[in-house]
Amino acid sequence: MSGDAESNPALHTMDFAILGTARSGTTALARLINVDPGCFCGTECFSGAADYATMGMPGAFLGPEISAGNDRNIMLNQTELRRKLGDGPVVAYGNKHPNYFLVMDQLHRQLPDLRSLFIYRDIGEISVSWDRRAANPKDKWPEGRTGLFSLLEWIISISRLAETPWPIRIVDYVALFYTDRLLAKRVIGYLSGREPSTATLERIHNSVFRGGQTEASAPAVSKHDGFLASIGNAGLSSFIHHQGFVSVLDVNEKLREFATASLPLVFQYVADQLAEFGSGAERAVVFQWAGKIAKLFDAPRSSTYLAVRAPMEALIERMCSTGVDTERKQADVILSILHRRLANPGQRAVGPGPGAIRTSSDGKGVAAASGRAGPSARTGGSTTDAAFPTVYEDDGLRITHTEGGHIAAAGPAHVVSFTGIGLGLQGIQTEEFHKTLVAGTVSRATYVIDKRRSWYNATYDGIREFLVPLCASSGRLITLGNSMGGFGAFYFASLLPNCTRAIAFAPQFSVHPELIPPGEKRWAKFREEITEHRRRHALDHPSDDIDYVAFFGDGSKVELEHARRLAKAATARTYIFVVRDCEHDVAAAIKRAGLIVDLLRLLLAGGQLRPRAVIGLLRDGGLTVQRMPTEHDRARRAIRDGGVSGQAASPA
User: Fold this and answer.
1) Domain extent at residue 319
2) pTM as predicted
3) pLDDT in tens, 189-204
4) Does residue 335 sit in the same domain as residue 416?
């Protein structure tokens, strides 16, 4: 390798990265790797914010840009690398850093062939290590950086692994160092791309492997063991230990399930502990830690960032309850950064400033954020209240998102609301049904606005790209929409993870030229601007595991024709309700009757859908409603009665 490799990254870029929270065993893993003469793993030689695409190996380790660690650390790393290069060729270069879990997307975008390895250690043991170092006055470890903060970094790292599309590997700390002496061979083979020698494995076994000892012989007792037991930490640790060495893509469902349930509980527990028992030093670390997360986190549009932001803001605000001016100023800076990261996800946040809509280098839209108060600037001059921070926007699509409400009993964890054309609002498309959704019925609400009014023909790719990872971390999900939004609620229900129900008011069955009902002349201006009809009809790809619930007015023949065509394409779990004395304004008619909130609460609740309960609620409120039979209803009735049911809407 040439010493000028750093000026020519095509020669040899970094081969692998070691991920893991602080005190999880990343340093021990680096030592194990460095036993192999053909591998070199630096220990925090480069920061998480470095530009790895421009670093050539080995020159980057020996040149002036190696500046992330302290001088002694740099000297030790360079001495070790020079020794190795003097003994023979080094075939694989890597680095370990405790902040890599915050920048894993950036790392893999810069280095598409990077082999990343996350070392997993039980969080109870990690938190004890943090507490021990924080309590040692001779240790450079900050006094207030106690085990509480290890819990936060741990749950964020699990959530990030659950959502990553990169084939990152996970290795279990106990298996690697205590119980499986053959695991080192697999680890080095993965990181270096070749099998280690027998002599190397023997040296690892003699110098690093601790078989015969066990951590269980002197179990670490964490002050947080009771809480960790309540969220099932032991089960997660046992699961990963059983896997030993595994691709995250093979276990992300398990990780996602755990992270989704546990992340808000961990933040709440830490906030409660700090509020009741926290020292001044710990309170100071809150702001340092939150600032690090806000600045380094490389995926502000990810489900993890969206899930973390609200509880982090709540934690910061809670630490400011004493009214100390310096804390308030720190908090305002961090909160501003959190919002700016949504405004400009492609760049690092370096301080407070106004949000703005930007376009990435590839021409795709990026997120825009509203501030803590006041309206957000939007392309085209439309505005939305700050309660709806924009998390994605381009020329044709806007997605806003609210987080952190309190889930009602049996309510969904997440509702995705698709907005209609907006003709009744002077052409302004707004977040529909938001008054019900933000009133505490759901914990997460996402609003999808197709600004091109294309019935998602022009915006489908952006919606899928953004919503699928966002919804993957949710619990039970429901889609909702009116008119064109109702079409979207039905169409996207089967494409979004965890969706159990789709609710649509006056949805079009189709605007496709081959399928649109005869006589349908509404919205012609927008339909004519659709250059390619890629979405055929609302139930183009239905799921038998989803309830499809639609409401139509009976005052329009063409409206009823949309309903009839929907009935012909229906699944066994499709329910169509027809309300008398209204047309396309069926949602408004239900609202005028004072029933929209109660209806949505009934439909958003969990459990089996009961059509009679829906009809009973509307009739008790003074509306006349019937249920239109679907093809499945007619088939069931034919089997039951030995005949064929009629074509008209019939009472339930």
Assistant:
1) 279-376
2) 0.57
3) 999 999 999 999 999 9
4) no
